[in-house]
Specification:
- The chain has about 325 residues and is of the alpha+beta class.
- It has 10 helices and 6 strands; from the N terminus they run E-H-E-E-E-H-E-E-H-H-H-H-H-H-H-H.
- The strands form 2 sheets. A 4-stranded mixed beta sheet has the order 2-1-5-6.
- Strand 1, helix 1 and strand 2 form a beta-alpha-beta unit.
- About 45% of the residues are buried.
- GO terms for molecular function: glutathione transferase activity.
- This is Glutathione S-transferase.
Length: about 325
């Protein structure tokens, strides 16, 4: 598969399936507990957002989750973690099958996260940015008691503004550096990334969270890039001005979130490393997966409590992951 743009700057294909699952069903897909399946890979930062939000909001009973393996080929993500290589609910071997069931001539990326309509086996949406917002707003009737407000009305404009910059310069910025096809394009992306990280660091030096005094959608979106930074982006994508662990404010902020229920307990470092180093053969031809770094450092002191804040606002932490949804032993920060 080709990722690097030989002519220079990497450009992400953002032609996603814009169908939405809503409370009123205006796109033909009403919110119905048990009807849909969220398909993810723990390796993918965009899918990781949906995993975290689903867990924070307590939507496990309403929206089941299928987990694809960390690697894929040109035919898409596969369910090779399941015993018979098939998703136990959808009965398919590859996510591609759900896309083709709805769009037989689908010619865009077969991406995660994706939500599939279980009765028909057809993909509904893969619009990752809208998926998590809709889980907060359209699925509100099915949130657990004590679920936090991740996209509160009073803060939406500010959250949207922060998210816009974080996406362009950080979430997608690491890819723009890693998949650049020229020195000029790489250096442009590199400086844009670290300029934004410096700005975020300056803000977070005096604020525990990005917007307001509680965890919001903005923190979820930044976290999934930061948690992958030292493991893959620093070396694999040449984002090497400094490691996250060498940027004191961002490192403390990321550790604070990692140690918050619903964040670190969704992180599979083994899958993350396998995905990037094995799949991106253009920039890692051998497919060798690095042995490090030491992930136990994510459990160290962060000191962010001194800034105050209430992680879940008036809500409560989520309970531990459901049986069968835990990160495999040895894949997280403790092993």
């Amino acid at each position: 598969m080709a990722y690097v743009n030989p002519s220079g700057e990497f450009s992400r294909d953002q032609r996603y399936i814009a169908t939405r699952i809503t409370a009123d069903g205006r796109d033909g897909y009403p919110v119905e507990p048990g009807r849909y399946r969220l398909v993810v890979s723990r390796a993918c930062p965009w899918a990781n957002r949906a995993i975290i939000v689903r867990r924070l909001l307590g939507l496990e009973d309403a929206l089941s989750m299928g987990v694809a393996g960390p690697t894929h080929d040109e035919r898409s993500w596969s369910f090779d973690l399941d015993p018979d290589g098939r998703d136990p609910v959808l009965g398919i071997e590859r996510l591609q099958q759900a896309y083709f069931a709805r769009f037989p001539d689908y010619d865009k990326g077969i991406t995660v996260p994706a939500i599939v309509d279980v009765p028909t086996g057809r993909v509904v949406t893969n619009d990752f940015a809208q998926i998590t917002l809709d889980l907060s707003l359209e699925w509100a009737k099915h949130h657990r008691p004590g679920a936090p407000e991740l996209y509160p009305a009073a803060l939406r404009d500010e959250i949207d503004r922060v998210n816009k910059h974080v996406f362009a310069d950080v979430n997608n910025g690491v890819y723009r550096a890693g998949f650049a096809g020229s020195q000029e394009a790489y250096e442009k992306a590199y400086h844009r990334l670290f300029d934004r990280l410096d700005q975020l660091s300056a803000h977070l030096a005096g604020h525990r969270y990005l917007v307001g005094d509680t965890i919001t959608e903005a923190d979820v979106r930044l976290f999934t890039t930061l948690v992958r930074f030292d493991a893959v982006y620093h070396g694999h994508f040449k984002c090497n001005r400094a490691k996250l662990s060498e940027m004191p404010v961002l490192w403390a902020y990321a550790k604070d979130l990692f140690q918050t229920p619903g964040f670190g307990d969704t992180i599979d470092f083994a899958d993350i490393k396998r995905h990037y180093y094995e799949v991106h053969r253009e920039i890692n031809p051998t497919g060798i997966v690095p042995a490090g770094p030491d992930f136990s450092t994510w459990l160290g002191e962060h000191g962010r409590d001194r800034l105050g804040g209430r992680p879940f606002g008036d809500g409560t932490p989520p309970p531990p992951p459901r049986p069968g949804e835990e990160v495999p032993a040895g894949h997280g920060a403790t092993g």
